[in-house]
Amino acid sequence: MFDKKHNSFNSPDLHKMQEVIINSRTRIYIEEGQDPEEAKERYLERLEARRP
Fold first, then answer.
1. Residue 34 or 51, more confident
2. In sequence order, what are the beta bridge partners of 20?
3. C-alpha distances in angstroms, 14 versus 20, 30, 32, 41, 52?
4. At residue 51, does pLDDT exceed 90?
5. Distance between CA 21 and CA 26 in Å, rounded?
6. What is the pLDDT of residues 4-35, one digit of tens each?
7. CA distances in angstroms from 46 to 8, 11, 14, 25, listed in the order given
8. What is the full DSSP assignment across the chain?
9. How many whole angstroms separate alpha carbon 33 and alpha carbon 45?
């Protein structure tokens, strides 16, 4: 009767991205050419905003 549409999610290729180490347990990936220090600051700001 109804056909379900399959959600297809393509993961980004991490080999084409730059790794930013936040601390010993946390790593984020950003596009090549972006500022790693700015990405780290933005990540920490969002993390601090979530804490009560």
1. 34
2. 28
3. 12, 9, 10, 21, 32
4. no
5. 6
6. 888 898 999 999 999 999 999 999 999 999 99
7. 28, 23, 22, 17
8. --PPPPP--PPP-GGGEEEEE-SSS-EEEEETTS-HHHHHHHHHHHHHHH--
9. 21
Dist CA 19 CA 15 (whole Å): 9
Q: Which residues contact 1 (CB under 8 A, 6 or more apart)?
A: none
The two three-digit tokens of residue 18, written as one number: 């730059």
Tokens 């500022």, residue?
A: 35
Q: Which amino acid is at 25?
A: R
Identify the residue whose tokens are 């979530």.
50
